[in-house]
Specification:
By secondary structure, the protein is an all-alpha fold. The protein folds into 2 domains: 226 residues, no CATH class; 203 residues, no CATH class. Helices cover 83% and strands 0% of the residues. The protein is built from 17 helices and no strands. Helix 2 packs antiparallel against helix 9 and helix 13 packs across helix 14. It starts with a helix and ends in an 8-residue tail after the last helix. The relative contact order is 0.12.
């Protein structure tokens, strides 16, 4: 059981440096991963008058179509990332134990899972995209653009899946720089192609939403191909053997660790879909205020996500080396560093909400509605840091069932009923939405702290 002394005891500078060096590229990777979708949204949202006249739709329609399509793509991306958690945890354990042969088996079988899942999702996206977009509330005008965006990106989902799973394996080996470089390449390609094709710059065809999708598809698809080539040559002690034969034992281990993480995302996204319906029912101003606040807050998440990835690697490697105390110390150090960054971001959000919001939107009514929400989002940043980073440590130990259970408890047993009561019965509006969200986040952090402090993860076999 961790005590207050455990949390505040000084650690050697070399330990702090190791955590920082591992986490910082992971934070950068998270920024760049999110930037792909944000770039597309920005470019189609600034569709030129000439392009709009040529394409037959306005920038607002293009923004709605690309935005809805990007929600579906992001959902799939989150599942790819969740599938890679098994690879991170098992590769880290094998690296810590010095078992080189096991490392190569895990990499090969992880990429095989990525290949199979990428193929399956491609079929689903090509066939079922319109049904999903209608479920999100797409109008008849927006639906064709959203479907077009998704159909184009679906063509490169297989290499995209291999990109995210391969990056996860590299992080397990302690290499967070190669995933960062891969995402730099993905973003550079996406920005260049989207800039050329959305508005038809430098004589290129004017493709609008389709141009943004082509840039994202080629960026992520090309990144996946390059990463596979690197692993085939060998990178950071990992070497991908061109062997498609399944290894049932290794596959079972990967699925036992990775499948609960995919289930966690399914539970979260299902609850989010219902939750979003409550928000849309408040009207366009409240919906716009909520969305811009979520966008700003999602940027503050990035240090937590990066340090969570670092904690997963450090815990897995330390447990593989039979050093559970080191795993615990590294995770708390990651929490201090990442928590400090998120807390500082939260202070800025809480103290200067109007200034921050004006950077993203110029509608006074939306800014006024979003101000209390952004303040609430800033105040809850320390709790989010605890939840993200300690759950990252648990996932690195292979304890991926607990994050699933805690999601089910806080999302479905707390957030949704509380939202129904505050918004549906009490009429609390957007303030009620964010009160329910912050209550959910706080409970998640308390549950994560309790689970990690209990120490059962130190004795898990994966």
């Amino acid at each position: 059981m961790a005590t207050a002394t455990t949390l505040i005891k000084p650690l050697p500078g070399s330990v702090r440096r190791r955590v920082f060096d591992l986490a910082l590229p992971a934070v950068g990777e998270q920024v760049l991963n999110m930037a792909v979708g944000l770039t597309d949204i920005y470019l189609v949202g600034n569709l030129s008058l000439r392009a709009a006249d040529q394409l037959g739709y306005s920038s607002a329609t293009a923004l709605a179509g690309a935005g809805l399509g990007n929600q579906m793509v992001w959902l799939v991306t989150v599942f790819f990332i969740a599938l890679g958690i098994g690879g991170t945890a098992l590769v880290a354990r094998a690296v810590g134990a010095g078992n080189h042969a096991d490392v190569q088996r895990i990499v090969r079988q992880s990429m095989l899972i990525g290949l199979a899942f990428g193929l399956s999702v491609t079929v689903v996206m090509l066939v079922g995209v319109e049904h999903f977009l209608r479920l999100l509330g797409a109008s008849d005008e927006v639906l064709p653009l959203g479907a077009q965006y998704v159909h184009i990106i679906a063509l490169t989902l297989i290499p995209a899946a291999l990109l995210f799973v391969g990056n996860a394996c590299l992080r397990g080996a302690g290499d967070t720089r190669t995933p960062l470089y891969a995402m730099i390449g993905v973003n550079g390609t996406n920005i260049l192609l989207s800039w050329l094709l959305v508005n038809g710059n430098l004589g290129f065809p004017t493709l609008g939403v389709a141009g943004a999708a082509i840039g994202a598809a080629i960026g992520r698809g090309g990144g996946g191909i390059v990463l596979v080539a690197l692993l085939l040559r060998g990178r950071s002690g990992l070497r991908l053997e061109p062997d498609l034969r399944p290894d049932p034992v290794t596959l079972r281990r990967l699925i036992n660790v990775g499948l609960p993480s995919a289930g966690e995302q399914l539970v979260f996204q299902g609850a989010l879909l219902i939750f979003t319906r409550f928000v849309t029912g408040l009207g366009m101003v409240a919906y716009a205020a909520h969305n811009v606040t979520i966008t700003i807050e999602s940027l503050s998440f990035l240090p937590g996500l990066g340090y969570a990835a670092a904690a997963s690697t450090l815990v897995g490697q330390a447990l593989g080396a039979r050093s559970p105390r080191e795993a615990e110390d590294m995770t708390y150090e990651a929490l201090w560093q990442g928590g400090l960054m998120m807390t500082l971001a939260g202070v800025i959000m809480a103290c200067f909400p109007g200034h921050i919001l004006s950077v993203f939107i110029n509608d006074p009514a939306v800014i006024e509605a979003a101000t209390p929400a952004l303040r609430a989002g800033g105040l809850v940043q320390p709790a989010l840091a605890v939840s993200f980073i300690l759950l990252g440590g648990l996932r690195g130990a292979g304890d991926t069932h607990w994050p699933l259970y805690s999601r089910m408890m806080t999302n479905w047993a707390v957030r949704l009923p509380l939202t129904f009561w505050l918004v549906g019965i009490m009429g609390a509006g957007l303030e009620g939405i964010w009160l329910a969200m912050c209550t959910d986040f706080t409970l998640q952090s308390l549950l994560a702290l309790w689970r990690f402090s209990a120490g059962r993860w130190k004795h898990l076999e994966v």
